[in-house]
Design goal:
92 residues, mainly alpha, two-stranded parallel sheet, AS_sf
């Protein structure tokens, strides 16, 4: 059913890309948010950041936001509660 909601042909987004599109753009890397990711994913991200830097972007690394640890703890509590609520209504 979900596939029926998709457009018959995906538009070619590459037509909207510009070779100088990253020139002068600032991109922040929230390193704390990336903690615990598979090292392969982190290496791929770092490689893409180097590519974007080469295309003119300014990379702010790290760009962690204040109180991230508090945010993560709060988010983990919410996720845990959601999981427990779902488990209670849908036993295995």
């Amino acid at each position: 059913m979900i596939a029926l909601a998709q457009p018959p042909v995906v538009p070619d987004y590459t037509q909207a890309l510009r070779a100088d599109g990253l020139k002068g753009q600032r991109l922040g890397v929230p390193r704390k948010f990336l903690e615990g990711l598979d090292p392969v994913v982190v290496r791929a991200l770092n490689a893409s950041l180097e590519t974007m830097k080469g295309l003119g972007a300014t990379i702010i690394d790290p760009a962690d936001f204040p109180d991230f640890d508090e945010f993560r703890a709060s988010n983990d509590e919410k996720q845990g509660g959601t999981t427990l609520a779902g488990t209670a209504s849908h036993p295995a």
